[in-house]
Amino acid sequence: MEGLTRVWALRVLLLLALCGALGAGLRVSGVRVPPVVVSGSAVDLTCHYHHSTDRPDPLYSIKWYRDVNQFYEYIPRRDPPIRVYPLPHIHVDRARSSQATVALKGVTRETSGSFRCEVMGDKPFFETDDHAVNMTVVDVPSWGPEVWGAATGARVRPGEVVAVRCLMGPSDPPADVSWTVNGEAAPPEAVDLRPLARGPRGRLAQASELRVTATEEWLARGAMTLTCHAQVSSVYHATANVTLVHSDWPQPAEFGWFSAGGCRPDQAVGVDERLNKRRCEEYEEFQRAKCGGKR
């Protein structure tokens, strides 16, 4: 009976020792995954681990998962050490991947998900530790914003209603569109946001209308600038604007087609370069005609 008790005591001690050893092996010390990226980008996922001072187990493997599906494995003792598992919308760049980094190429909206790194120590415990980080891929607009309804340099009187529209190309998620007047937020009641028809792959285009009454305050310096701001998450921000001139003020030199400074292409984001070129060509033609064909 005493011998049996001693055997059970030894088993308990071994179990306690094993439990104490568990949790003292390799540990994930950091996973770096960009939270938001633009579709088509190349993305590096990095995973770092550290050895325990109590039990410096060697590394057996590093694995990567999107959600619950494995797509990458690195085992140092294997030749070659890298193995890639097929997974829809995951394209691993083997040449740029290593033990610490998995390089993805050509990410798409569908690549989004929770990316988890798992490290495993070698025998006898084969203990694992992991950490996951979410990544969202966004489709940014291929054009826009563009302001329609008024041209820079157009005349306006205090009390006159001004209506302009901002068009924004399809994106996923849809762009957040806002307006400012002379750098300050436009009154909320003056803005009307209307989603347009969906574009390729279900992406939604946006149209935002600004309808305001010009005030003496806005025109106090002779002009008022209406600016459309478009933003998609933290990776895309663009603006387009139009500046209207007080009808009782002289036309500023930088506004209008035929200023003494020559042709000055519009610098607003979203303006087609070909349109700028055509405007400059029209200006050159006007100058030649005015001077009898001489320059």
List strands and helices in order, with pairings.
Elements: H1 2-21, E1 27-32, E2 36-38, E3 43-50, E4 59-66, E5 69-74, E6 82-84, E7 101-104, E8 113-121, E9 128-138, E10 146-148, E11 155-156, E12 161-171, E13 176-181, E14 184-185, E15 191-198, E16 204-213, E17 223-232, E18 236-246, H2 273-290
Parallel strand pairs: 2-9, 11-18
Antiparallel strand pairs: 1-3, 3-7, 4-5, 4-8, 5-6, 8-9, 10-12, 12-16, 13-14, 13-17, 15-16, 17-18
Domain Ig-like: 40-119, 145-243
Keywords: Signal
Protein name: Ig-like domain-containing protein
Describe the overall structure.
- This protein is 13% helix and 41% strand.
- The protein is mainly beta.
- The protein folds into 2 domains: 114 residues, Sandwich (Immunoglobulin-like), CATH 2.60.40.10; 111 residues, Sandwich (Immunoglobulin-like).
- Strands 2-9-8-4-5-6 form a 6-stranded mixed beta sheet, with no helix packed on it.
- A hairpin with a 2-residue loop joins strand 4 and strand 5.
- The radius of gyration is 31 Å and the shape is elongated.
- The N and C termini lie far apart (118 Å).
- It comes from Scylla paramamosain.
Features:
Immunoglobulin-like; 18 strands; single chain; six-stranded mixed sheet; five-stranded mixed sheet; disordered C terminus; 295 residues; 2 domains; 2 helices; mainly beta; 41% strand
